[in-house]
Amino acid sequence: MAYKDVCIVGRPAGGRVREDDIPGGAPAAAHDAGGPSPGILKFIDEVVRALPNPNVPPKPTSFPPQVDVDTYPGRGNADVHFEGRAVDVSLNYSSQQAEGDWLFDWCVANCTRYRIQGVIFGPRQWFSEAAGGSVTVRGKHDHFDHVHVELNCDGANLR
């Protein structure tokens, strides 16, 4: 199945759309995009696989050119991966922290370019709707083997 825009026009796209919506009514199928969005594919091609423009902060030369990426439906269906709006970039916090930190920092610094709404790596997380878009330390530490990047609906649909 090809990507299907499952965003609700006129409604903010937070990081837990499917989880938040289902108890109130929308069936899970309403959030099934069927694959990664055009925005996520563009982000992977232009930032993860290539030298991003702008290259600020500078991409480390040690960043693996063929790093594994996990898009749709991700590690579970109850999240933005199911909506085609997220990617997990496999970088290990203990052995590739510099590379993961770079991707995290680049995403925060350039969030408007791809309409990035959230990034998580190791103990750090950033969400655009959080208190002034500040980087915080998570209580839950489940992102030590990948960098999670998620786009809002506009970014996913290249708007």
In short:
With 159 residues, the protein is α+β, with helices and mostly antiparallel strands. It contains five helices and six strands. Helix content is 23%, strand content 15%.
What does this structure look like?
This protein is an alpha+beta fold. It is 23% helix and 15% strand. It is built from 5 helices and 6 strands. The chain has helices spanning 17-21, 38-48, 97-109, 111-114, 153-156, and strands at 69-70, 86-89, 116-121, 124-127, 135-137, 147-151. Strand 4 (124-127) and strand 5 form a beta hairpin. The relative contact order is 0.20.
Number of distinct beta strands? 6
Mean pLDDT: 83
The proportion of residues forming helix, as a percent range, comes to 10-25%
Tally of helical runs: 5
- What's the shape? globular
Number of self-contained structural domains: 1
DSSP strand content: 15-25%
Report the biggest beta sheet as strand number plus sense, adding barrel if it closes.
6 strands, antiparallel
Compute the CA-based radius of gyration: 15 Å
List SSEs in N-to-C order: HHEEHHEEEEH
Can you list the strand order of the major beta sheet?
1-2-6-3-4-5
Look at the helices and sheets and give the structural class: alpha+beta
Report, as a whole number of angstroms, the end-to-end distance: 22 Å
